[in-house]
Amino acid sequence: MFPRLANLLNSRQLIFAARRFENQQSSQTGELKIRSILEKSFPKAKVIEVVDISGGCGAMYDITVEAPELKGLSIVKQHRMVNEALKEEIKDMHGLRINTSVPT
What we know:
Blueprint: H1 3-41, E1 47-52, E2 60-66, H2 75-85, H3 87-90, E3 95-101
Parallel strand pairs: 2-3
Antiparallel strand pairs: 1-2
């Protein structure tokens, strides 16, 4: 009935879809970069998980590290090790949730 309006809606839908895809791609890139850094810092780690919880913009991550390198350290010192490994990346972040443990 209104072809111009239909075309405009389709254009907007395409723009929003492209933005969602772009955010998803940058989110995965950030996750992979952080994971790679943590794998180098904790080479014996049994588990390293990195999840972008910012909605795709890379501003906040949930990080889990289970590594024998953390044995005998307090939770605060374990988290400091993760922070130290990611000190350059943290500069561009809004927040970070860190979960650490030692394999059993």
